[in-house]
Write a structure and sequence with these properties.
- About 0% of the residues lie in helices and about 40% in strands.
- By secondary structure, it is mainly β.
- It has one domain (about 5-460): Neuraminidase (6 Propeller).
- Strands 1, 2, 17, 19, 20, 21 and 22 form a seven-stranded antiparallel β-sheet that branches. The chain has a six-stranded antiparallel β-sheet with strand order 3-4-26-25-24-23, with no helix packed on it.
- This is DUF839 domain-containing protein.
């Protein structure tokens, strides 16, 4: 077990807003294409208050509101649903004339984490609805090179608690249900807790049939190994027994659109001697010989997966496993927080883990929180993505003011955006979390959601490439 430590504190100038972490940021970018870019910069300067009270950005940056909950969908299918969450950007067709001045178009696929009490449900659409009583799903936006919205419609409806997901290797979106309700519970007519494949053109249409072999549990995010086609999955369970980290071995690896319906084997990660990842506190801690144990019942017909019998040695749990992405030759995943008062073996305000499948090695790369001198519940990292300047963008999901933070390869933390929409009161202000941060394929635009009130922003400016 080796340990390397680095401590960084970045303050935004907003009262009570700070990020602290320990770890070597450069580890996150080893072997990635982004690592060859001119990363390692110190950010873009202080945030400038937005006179319109929506989004504070550094000087020189500007935003455009693409979509707001409660507005009419351009398709005429109903209103824009609430609870904007995970999102991905895909390259669309390039047009030589008209909108966008010849720059490529972009598809945005956006989750709506609606339960049965949502403010604005996802409209049910014939052929795109799984369970007509469920209120979650996805919407799809098409924007041109100037970030003008051309189309906006329902991508899938009748799902529940669509939190995050991830892009497939063939240009579709896998949307994940963060729930385990069965048919007959809470008014649902079908079982929930699945992954669905959402497309946005005629060649790759949405399928309302769940990818059952990938498991029924409180899904959060997925990431593909581009070499093998193996899919990694996180489980966001905040109460005991906490969630697991999974891998899915498709019967048709890298098989293209629809191939995940052919089935495969679902396995859960076991780190020998580590029943709870929160017990690991030293960044750089590495564990070789990671094991993968086949899930006894992926459909959880009688028992939730995290409660099933994995035999001698048990299984490794972690509280609030959330963001997940592939970088270089490794998969990275986030534990948003752990609290001993809720049953975890340790306390932290965020961990980022790296798993190297070739070496079967798991490494704790970054720790946010208590052991880094600052203890702020607002430090909890959630969605995470690679930025075009060779760093990361991390969405904050905690108390107090909410931010998108940038993390450079040289270990600098900087504020990129701050939510300015107060959903509380003047006496007790509250701000909606950020989610779904992603970049346009050409790197010119950062797209990000405000969860409440549901808002999708397109942020442009002097990005460093």
């Amino acid at each position: 077990m080796s340990t390397s430590r680095r401590q960084v504190l970045a303050r935004t100038g907003a009262a009570g807003a700070a990020v602290a972490f320990s770890g070597a940021l450069s580890e996150l970018f080893t072997g990635t294409a982004a690592a060859q870019a001119t990363g390692g910069r110190a950010g873009y300067g202080p945030l400038v208050p937005d006179p319109d009270g929506l989004l504070d950005l550094p000087k020189g940056f500007r935003y455009k509101v693409l979509s707001r909950e409660g507005d009419q969908l351009r398709s005429g299918e109903g209103k824009v649903p609430s609870n904007f969450d995970g999102m991905a950007a895909f390259a669309g067709e390039r047009r030589g004339h008209g909108h966008g001045h010849g720059r490529g178009r972009t598809w945005l696929v956006r989750n709506h984490e609606n339960r049965m009490d949502s403010r604005v449900p996802v409209p049910t659409v014939e052929g795109l609805t799984y369970d007509p009583e469920a209120e979650g799903g996805c919407t799809v936006l098409e924007v041109d090179g100037d970030n003008d919205v051309l189309t906006e419609r329902v991508g899938i409806a009748g799902t529940s608690t669509n939190c995050a997901g991830g892009p497939s290797l063939w240009g579709t979106w896998l949307t994940c249900e963060e729930t385990e309700f069965r048919a007959g519970e809470e008014g649902y007519t079908k079982d929930h807790g699945f992954i669905f494949e959402v497309g946005f053109d005629r060649r790759r249409p949405t399928s309302v049939e769940p990818l059952k072999a990938m498991g029924r549990f409180q899904h959060e995010a997925v990431a593909f190994d581009p070499r093998t086609g193996v899919v990694y999955e996180t489980e966001d369970a905040f109460d005991k027994p906490f969630g697991l980290f999974y891998r899915f071995l498709p019967d048709k690896p890298k098989g293209g659109y629809g191939s995940l319906h052919a089935g495969g084997r679902l396995e859960a990660m076991r780190v020998p001697g580590v029943p709870d990842l929160s017990a690991v506190t030293e960044t750089g801690s590495s564990f070789d010989g990671v094991e993968w144990v086949e899930v006894p019942d992926p459909l959880a017909a009688q028992t939730p997966i995290r409660l099933q019998d994995f035999g001698k040695g048990g299984i490794t749990h972690a509280q609030k496993l959330e963001g997940c992405y592939w970088g270089g030759s490794c998969v990275y995943f986030v534990s948003s927080y752990a609290r001993s008062a809720e049953g975890s073996q340790g306390d932290h305000y965020g961990q980022i883990w790296r798993y190297d499948p070739r070496r079967r090695r798991l490494t704790l790369v970054i720790v946010f929180g208590p052991d880094t001198d600052v203890q702020l519940p607002g430090e909890e990292p959630d969605n995470i993505c690679l930025a075009p300047n060779g760093g990361l963008m991390v969405c904050e999901d905690g108390a107090g003011a909410q931010h998108v933070y940038g993390l450079t390869r040289k270990g600098t933390v900087y504020p990129m955006a701050r939510g300015a929409q107060n959903i509380g009161t003047p006496e007790e202000p509250e701000w909606g979390e950020f989610a779904g941060v992603t970049f346009a394929p050409d790197g010119r635009t950062m797209y990000v959601n405000c969860y409440t009130p549901g808002t999708t922003f397109a942020v442009t400016g002097p990005w460093k490439h």
